[in-house]
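Morning!

As promised:
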Amino acid sequence: MKKTRPWLLWTLPVISGALFVALWYGAKGVFNVSDWILPTPGEVAVAAWREHERLLRAAGNTMLGALAGFLLAGTLGFATALVLGVSRSLRAGLYPWLLVLQMTPVIVLTPIIVLWAGPGLPGIITVTWLISYFPIVANMTQGLLSTDMNHVALFRMANATRLQEMWLLRVPSAMPYYLAGLRIAATLAPIGAIFGEYMVGNSAGGSGGLGFLVYVYNTRIQIPALFATALTSCLLGFIFVAAVSLLNWVVLHQWHDSYERDDH
Amino acid sequence: MGLTESIVQFDAVRKRYGSGPLVLDGINLTVTPGDFLTMIGPSGCGKSTVLKLVAGLNPASEGTLKVLGTTPKQARDRQAFIFQDATLLPWHTAQGNTELPLRLRGVPAATRRAQAGAMLALVGLDKVAGYFPRQLSGGMKMRVSIARALTLEPQLLLLDEPFGALDEMTRNRLNEELLTIRERSRFTAMFVTHSVSEAVFLSNRILVMAANPGRLHAEVKVDFAYPRRPDLRERPEFQAKVTEVSRLLYAVEDPGP
């Protein structure tokens, strides 16, 4: 890959962002769009400032649900993949049902979730878990089955036990796959939490999350505030992805080829 | 010679995978202590399969095979396998990779650190013990692989084209190092290669194999005394051996279209 100059890495997004804002203003002027359909970026900024306390509190609440659901998906996904990776018959018996779970639209399950887990945070966590669980299972299982056959032969030659083969060989070599799964889950978890709040309802002591704010602003026709909520949701997603990227770096940077330096 | 004195004993061994064609047919072979036996032959002659049978990675279909006086699987803890590529675990350093067989056997950390460190020093890599495989050259990786195989002090070392991917300079140097290490470690070796000069330089016995099905075609004894020095390669009797083996090899190669 060709080396990108470091200063371009932050100036280019700023330039394209500025162009986008200019285009936004331009489109509004040219097509004469009314403010309640498309507010100006300025109005969105003002709304964001005026509502920033509510937005931040809501973002914090959403973060709680998203993080709990994500961690649940991360640990359960890991454990499920271990089970699926151990035996062919377990894999054959269970994988189709995991697919069924994934294929069922969450929106259909939501009333059932509310019924079982209850409204509020438990329901939101369940929805988040449901949305971000499968990519982790699928990736990690694939990773556990993709172990280099020569490495397996090496372990067999050394009379390694199945447990040693799993923990010292298959799990470490599946780490890049697991982290890829986590990365997908990281983009899904905030979406899951916001969707959960919108569908399942109020949470966290009545103050509500971003999904609840969407409902509130929409019914009050506070369109600039709605845009500001969208931006805040984006921010939340970025925090999640950044955290997983950091984890990815910590686990892989020393040995994995994806961190091969350009100047090598 | 009795069975107990042989390191490896093949008696009328045949091998096929599943219901496929015969890969090996009528293999009778005795490897005695101290042998450096090299198998050479066209692709598909089953030379790698011979090693896998000895290692117990695959079972023989017919005939009997004894390794170190017992079954291949039970002899595993006294033999080691060096693969075509170095098969290092990328998430471990050179040190960690060399320690692996000891770790799998439950050797305490302090002991295995010392033993693996000594092995790395033997192959001249003590200075890069903390490097990860991706930071090492192909030749260095293969040295780590050799060090790892030797940490358990195997009686029998199986090498499946270990130097095939290296440039000729590095390959020659590693050939010399392998013989130097053998002066100290005294293992018996079974070696697979495509290089005639490598076979002649390393071995006291060369088996030329033929394909379809894989079988032993001829055996060539190489009587140059050990330790062998690099200048052996320039001597006329060395060249004569290379020619002899090359002719045998030429005879079993497919004539082609």
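Chain A is about 80% helix and 0% strand.

Hope this helps with the figure draft.
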